[in-house]
């Protein structure tokens, strides 16, 4: 393990010295200050007369990077928040969103007191109440629901508000387990790939992003690091400075695609076909690493047979690329070793997303770069997560095995359209750290469910979000600067400490305080509901040799610690039935997939649903915006100014066929809804038949035109993965 060596707290002198070395200045720090223009609260720019101290924090938002942050505190107020210059990932600079943490902390629209609804749901009429009244009302509704409908009529909803081990992964689930509430699967993001990769490698562990600089060929497939993983871009650029090739495979031309040595603009949903077509050439032309394949893989003959079904001519037609592009990919990828394939989450959020991940994952094994420094695959990392879930979540508190609802089907669940909720309806919904309107799929159905007068909804939030508009009780949530937690990257290998820098503003409470207090209000006497964040951090760290340096004291002292695994799979031992990389898997057939891999048309596509395609001819993709993380930050003025109003990017031919010009408003619709957005016409950003619109703009700031009104709530092929991008629409001029 490595840590922030020599770090025993920050003096002002050492802090500024480190910041200057990274090109930071007090002028740049001023961009993060809470100004009248950006927040409406008292300005903190100017001469500070009090003593300056520094606090250390970690951005807990759902992001690969999980930046280490430093707060400057004067007279009991945080006046600046900047990146930790000593951490190799953060390197002193948060992303554009992280630059505005202080604007969120001191935003004038923060909810600071409990509220109860006094108007119709969604009307926005509220009355301030005390915490005692809020607790009494919630407890009454919980007990009524349990008595009349059973404990499974209570359902939590939570996702990306914080990804801290204590406040998100821990105490709240103790409460819901104790009650015996319905479970939710947290499968919006990447569960398909996490399920697929172990069939091939026995694990989904990925290489350290700090080794990207050592590769000779970096393939970014279905992701956009410049928007969603900005701190990895410096390692990619270091590799390029050392002569590495950059290949981008994506239906959307994003910033890295415009810099790439080769850009493959696939037809959406055809990633498996392209991967198998590439393998057809690699195998048939003997370009693979024969020694590695013979010694460390299983099922090569089955793979060789299967790829014969994907000759370049067929793949070019399926993927809407040229045979020359396929061969250029093969040439560039096979001649530059070691190579890395970075698999993103975008193509995975489809009907057959898990199968696509598996098909792509064969390539590093064929080239023999698995376990080699600067080689292999990059997907997601969790092995360095040091906490014991059985302790943090306490599943043993549950009275029995409870029903489970896929969070992607929230609308169906609360609208009573799932078989299980028709029989046993959801009567109490508790949302914390999540804003399903506008970030979940099929938003209009979610609105319909939330509008039920017999559904009692509690929302624990920092702001009056779209979801909070439908609440019966709103509880003020603490900002992450106001509580203690531990967070870890899910691409890098860092475990990071976040201290409590301030007391919670107003009457806001952290998740730990809320659910511990609510448990006691329910009459629960379990000792775990007396534990503080500090208690849980100290007791919950796993007693494994790899985590020997991760202690509460070390985390407080060093702020972050790296769990160093060396070269992943360097021992060439794989936790599969054969102990080898498996191109052929009997086990995956039990999940309903091909034992090797195959291309299947998407559920909503020209080949998969021709009748639907006759009506809706455009495949809508909804990637992440660089200014937002899901729906977070949309209400920050600086972000709003840079974000602008929502728009849809369409191909020039599609625009011409519909009489749409750049800047025109157009209607985008399918059977799930309709939105009105401004058109951005492009010859190269997308192919004909494809459109792109950034997801999760707030509903209330866009006159109801959130793009996820159109998103499907169908479930993908592995582990309940979402299908946001399997989405046919029609576009017409407004």
UniProtKB/TrEMBL annotation:
Short name of one Pfam family: Molybdop_Fe4S4
Keyword set, alphabetical order: Iron, Iron-sulfur, Metal-binding, Oxidoreductase, Signal
Entries under InterPro entries matching the protein: Asp_de-COase-like_dom_sf, MoPterin_dinucl-bd_dom, Mopterin_OxRdtase, Mopterin_OxRdtase_4Fe-4S_dom, Prok_Mopterin_Oxidored, TAT_signal, TAT_signal_bac_arc
Stored CDD domains: MopB_3 (cd02766)
Entry coiled-coil feature ranges: none
Entry annotated with the keyword Metal-binding: yes
Domain 4Fe-4S Mo/W bis-MGD-type: from-to ranges: 52-109
MF term (GO), any: molybdopterin cofactor binding
Family to which the UniProt record says this protein belongs: Belongs to the prokaryotic molybdopterin-containing oxidoreductase family.
Descriptive protein name: Molybdopterin oxidoreductase
Lineage start: Bacteria, Bacillati, Bacillota, Clostridia, Eubacteriales
């Amino acid at each position: 393990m490595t840590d922030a060596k020599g770090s025993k707290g920050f003096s002002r002198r050492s802090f500024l010295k480190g910041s200057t070395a990274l090109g930071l200045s007090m002028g740049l720090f001023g961009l993060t200050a809470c100004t009248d223009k950006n927040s409406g609260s008292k300005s903190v720019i100017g001469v500070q007369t009090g003593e300056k101290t520094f606090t250390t924090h970690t951005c807990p938002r759902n992001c690969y990077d999980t930046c280490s942050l430093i707060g400057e505190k004067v007279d009991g107020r945080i006046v600046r928040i900047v990146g930790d210059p000593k951490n190799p990932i953060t390197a002193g600079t948060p992303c554009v969103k992280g630059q505005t943490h202080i604007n969120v902390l001191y935003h004038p629209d923060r909810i600071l007191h409990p509220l109860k609804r006094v108007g119709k749901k969604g009307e926005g009429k509220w009355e301030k109440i005390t915490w005692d009244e809020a607790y009494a009302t919630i407890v009454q509704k919980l007990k009524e629901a349990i008595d009349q409908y059973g404990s499974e009529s209570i359902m939590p909803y939570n996702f990306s508000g914080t990804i801290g081990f204590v406040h998100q992964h821990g105490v709240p689930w103790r409460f819901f387990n104790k009650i015996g509430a319905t479970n939710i699967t947290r499968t919006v993001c990447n569960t398909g790939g996490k399920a697929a990769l172990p069939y091939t490698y026995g694990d989904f562990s990925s290489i350290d992003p700090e080794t990207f600089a050592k590769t000779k060929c970096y393939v970014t497939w279905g992701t956009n690091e410049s928007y969603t993983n900005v701190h990895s871009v410096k390692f990619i650029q270091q590799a390029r400075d050392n002569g590495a090739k950059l290949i981008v495979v994506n239906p959307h031309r994003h910033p890295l695609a415009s810099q790439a040595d080769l850009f493959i603009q696939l037809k959406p949903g055809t990633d498996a076909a392209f991967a198998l077509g590439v393998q057809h050439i690699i195998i048939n032309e003997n370009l693979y690493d024969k020694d590695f394949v013979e010694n460390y893989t299983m099922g090569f003959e089955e793979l060789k047979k299967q790829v014969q079904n994907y000759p370049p001519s067929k793949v070019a037609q399926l993927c809407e690329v040229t045979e020359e592009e396929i061969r250029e990919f093969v040439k560039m990828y096979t001649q530059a070793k070691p190579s890395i394939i970075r698999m993103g989450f975008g193509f995975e959020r489809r009907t057959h997303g898990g199968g696509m991940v598996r098909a792509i994952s064969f390539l590093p094994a064929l080239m023999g770069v698995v376990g080699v420094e600067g080689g292999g695959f990059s997907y997601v990392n969790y092995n360095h997560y040091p906490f014991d879930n059985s302790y943090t979540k306490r599943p043993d508190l549950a009275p029995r095995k409870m029903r489970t609802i896929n969070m992607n089907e929230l609308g169906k669940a609360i609208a009573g359209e799932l078989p299980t909720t028709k029989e046993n309806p959801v009567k109490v919904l508790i949302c914390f750290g999540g804003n399903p309107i506008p970030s979940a799929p099929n938003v209009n159905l979610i609105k319909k469910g939330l509008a039920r007068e017999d559904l009692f909804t509690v929302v624990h939030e920092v702001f009056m979000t779209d979801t909070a508009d439908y609440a019966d009780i709103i509880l003020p949530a603490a900002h992450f600067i106001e509580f203690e937690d531990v967070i870890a990257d899910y691409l890098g290998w860092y475990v990071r400490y976040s201290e409590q820098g301030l007391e919670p503003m107003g009457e806001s409470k952290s998740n730990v305080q809320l659910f511990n207090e609510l448990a006691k209000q329910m009459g629960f006497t379990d000792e775990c509901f007396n534990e503080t964040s500090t208690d849980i951090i100290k007791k919950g760290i796993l007693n494994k040799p790899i985590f020997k340096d991760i202690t509460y004291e070390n985390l407080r002292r060093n702020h972050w610690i790296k769990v160093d695994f060396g070269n992943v799979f360097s021992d060439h031992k794989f936790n599969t039935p054969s102990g080898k990389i498996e191109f052929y898997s009997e086990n995956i057939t039990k999940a309903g997939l091909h034992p090797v891999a195959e291309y299947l048309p998407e559920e909503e596509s020209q080949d998969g649903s021709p009748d639907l395609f006759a009506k809706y001819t455009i495949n809508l993709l909804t990637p992440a915006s660089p200014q937002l993380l899901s729906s977070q930050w949309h209400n920050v003025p600086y972000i709003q100014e840079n974000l602008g109003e929502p728009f849809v990017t369409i191909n020039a031919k599609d625009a011409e066929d519909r009489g749409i010009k750049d800047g025109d408003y157009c209607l985008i619709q399918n059977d799930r809804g309709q939105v009105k957005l401004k058109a951005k016409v492009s010859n190269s950003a997308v192919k004909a038949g494809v459109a792109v619109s950034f997801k999760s703009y707030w509903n209330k700031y866009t006159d109801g035109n959130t793009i996820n009104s159109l998103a499907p709530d169908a479930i993908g092929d592995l582990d309940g993965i979402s299908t946001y991008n399997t989405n046919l629409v029609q576009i017409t001029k407004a």
